[in-house]
Amino acid sequence: MRSQREASRAVAEVVGRCRPQVVPAYPITPQTHIVEALGAMIRAGTLSPCVFLTVESEFAAMSAAIGASFAGSRTYTATASQGLLYMAEALFNASGLGAPIVMTVANRAVGAPINIWNDQSDAMSLRDCGWIQLYAPDNQAAVDLHVLAFRVAEALSLPVMVCMDGFVLTHAFEPLAVPTQAQVDNFLPPFRPRQVLDPGDPVTIGAMVGPEAFTEVKYLSAQRLDAAVNVFEWFAQEYAEITGRRYHAVESYRIEHADTVVVALGSAAGTLYELADAVPGVGVLLITMYRPFPARVVRGLLAAARRIIVLERAFAPGAGGIVTADVRAAVAGTSAMVHTVIGGLGGRPIRLASLHAVVTADALPDIHFLDLREDVVRREWERDPTVSAMEVRHVH
Amino acid sequence: MWQIRVHGRGGQGVVTAAELLADAAFRDGYEVQAFPSFGSERMGAPVTAYCRLDTRPIRIREPVVDADALLVIDASLLRLPETLAGLRTGGWVLVNSARTPQQLGVTSTASADVHIRWATVPATALARRYLGRVVPNAPMLGAFAALTRLVSLTAIEDALSDRFTAPIAEQNIRAARAAFASLQQVVTSDAQSA
User: Fold this and answer.
1) Averaged over A97-123, what is the pLDDT?
2) Which pLDDT does position A385 carry in this prediction?
3) What is the signed CA dihedral for A226, A230, A236, A239, rounded to 10 degrees?
4) What structural domains does chain B harbor?
5) Do residues A25 and A53 make contact, with C-beta atoms less than 8 angstroms apart?
6) Identical fold between A3-242 and A250-395
7) Is the CB of residue B171 less than 8 Å from the CB of residue B130?
8) How far apart are CA A104 and CA A36, in angstroms?
């Protein structure tokens, strides 16, 4: 049954129903409401046995999470933006060592300039740290993906990031179905760690590995990560049998007769569905699982597309679209034209009208910045002597 | 789809008003969505919140531009051009004021081609009277219900009961009822004179 609440609150509730045992967390906007609500539940004793660790930084949060996970505890944390970047070193350790931690990333821009609003630069910058990355298209998915995340993480002994657009999703108030405790218990068995630190039965986790085996260790972890595409689908099917809500690594909408397919991750989904309803010949491909990248599925679904537009909420300065590179590799050898549209940076809304103009335009450049304020850009160019000296305008 | 913007200042319960309206409308059978304009939540600073109601699931998440109705909790915000921006012709503007729209002088400020339906409610006075505090969002919602008939007063009362603890909820409900009654009179007299 659906009832209304702020999405952050719903995420905290569903994480609580996954029975975490340790929650080390450090506050950062726009993730804060989630861990505040969890902290209140833990303090009230409703999640017992569960410990909330107040730590001094995000680096400490992830380090404590790794320790807790290897002590045999189901472990959860949440962060965003600079906080995620501050965890970077520990993130690689969590995946490399195989700690099945689940973490919410309330996606937010990365400074400078400082900006608290939404884009996906934070999670995108750490797409290759060996974690499974899921991007929630809406708040119901954000709720459900957390339950799936724990199941997939623990089945593969790999950490999972559940990314949800900061503010746009986290701070929205809407009717949501949070699976009941019985439904979650039915789906998610108690955590049985693959290996555990136990003074009674000592093992070493994280010993140095030299050139004789490092390649093999990395190869095996990559294989394990790739398996997440299928593992996610199995568990998503099982989850659907319990809740009636089915998720896929990649979702498609109106692509059967689409000449143009817009590819996106996250909360732009709903706006794109409206766009596909309004403009004949436009379909949508929504990537929920971005790491591992389900390249075969993407290639299959894009087989008939003549034009592919990848809508990205982040970009790689000096290179272009980030997701575009993955999509291009997936459709290599086909005749589809692939364009990048960068939108929604630092909290600028991705508007239906703007996307409508993009898909119906006569021509689209390789890379297009949605709703770029040309007057502001021109003014800055005109007053900056380095621009004319380096002929930046011509290159651009 | 109904698209509503709430304009007020930090501390007036602007975001809560949008959430309560969504909560009430959901109880009346609508699909709903409410969210704040993020990052500006400081005491006294202008704050905007958005609410959408529809009979089918709501998929878009961009801020409301083409509003069907505005709840203006602080009348001084009418001086900002963005407050009335995008309002559809025939749209409602409910202003928290003890004065009539004519007395406020707002009816002439609108451009001639946009027909705006103005209404006022003394929400601050009602909040002071029933709550003893200047949080005028519940009477604004009561007045909005009377004005638009979009949501029922019962649903607003239920939403308030769920949101607040018993004594605070009761005070807010009484303020909302008083506002509903005062606007109902205005709406009825308009209908009779028309």
Assistant:
1) 97
2) 77
3) -110
4) 2-193 (3.40.920.10)
5) yes
6) yes
7) yes
8) 13
Which fold does the domain A3-242 belong to in CATH?
Rossmann fold (3.40.50)
Q: Thinking of the domain A250-395, which architecture would CATH place it in? A: 3-Layer(aba) Sandwich (3.40)
How near does any CA of chain B get to the CA of A37, in Å? 16
A chain contacts of residue B34, beta-carbon cutoff 8 Å:
172-174
Is A351 part of the contact surface with chain B (CB cutoff 8 Å)?
yes
Chain B: give the shortest CA distance to residue A82, in Å: 17
Count of Cβ atoms closer than 10 Å to residue A215 Cβ: 10
What interface predicted TM-score (ipTM) does this complex get?
A: 0.91
Instruction: Dump pLDDT digits (tens) for B52-76.
Output: 999 999 999 999 999 999 999 999 9
pLDDT higher than threshold 50 for residue A63: yes
| Average pLDDT value over all residues in chain A | 96
Contacts of A351 in chain B (CB under 8 A): 62
Q: Are the beta carbons of B33 and A274 separated by less than 8 Å?
A: no
Q: Is the Cβ pair B59, A172 closer than 8 Å?
A: no
Please count the residue pairs, one from chain A and one from chain B, whose beta carbons lie less than 8 angstroms apart: 62
| pLDDT confidence of residue A161 | 98
CA distance, residue A174 to nearest chain B CA (Å) = 5
Q: Which residues of A touch B50 (CB under 8 A)?
A: none
What are the residues facing A296 on neighbouring strands?
none
pLDDT band of residue A392 (cuts 50, 70, 90) is low
Judge whether A116 is closer than 8 Å to chain B, CB to CB.
yes
Cβ-defined contact of A175 to B34 (cutoff 8 Å):
no
Dist CA A235 CA A54 (whole Å): 33
Residue B106: its pLDDT value, please?
79
Q: Are the beta carbons of A173 and B22 separated by less than 8 Å?
A: yes
Interface of chain B toward chain A, CB-CB under 8 angstroms: 18-19, 22-23, 26, 31-36, 38-39, 58-63
What mean pLDDT do residues A41-60 have? Answer: 96
* pLDDT of B193 above 60: no
SS3 A131: coil
Percent of chain A with pLDDT over 90: 94
Q: Is pLDDT at A220 greater than 90 in this prediction?
A: yes
Q: Where are the alpha helices (DSSP H) in chain A?
A: 7-17, 32-44, 58-70, 81-86, 88-97, 121-125, 139-156, 181-187, 214-226, 228-243, 269-278, 295-301, 322-330, 352-360, 374-383, 385-390, 392-395
Q: Where are the domains of chain A?
A: 3-242, 250-395
Give residue-wise pLDDT tens across range A323-365: 999 999 999 999 999 999 999 999 999 999 999 999 999 999 9
Contact B38 A350 (CB under 8 A): no
Residue B20 has pLDDT above 50, yes or no: yes
Q: Nearest C-alpha of chain A: how many angstroms from B123? A: 24
Coil/strand/helix, residue B69: strand
Q: Per the CB < 8 Å rule, is A173 touching B35? A: yes
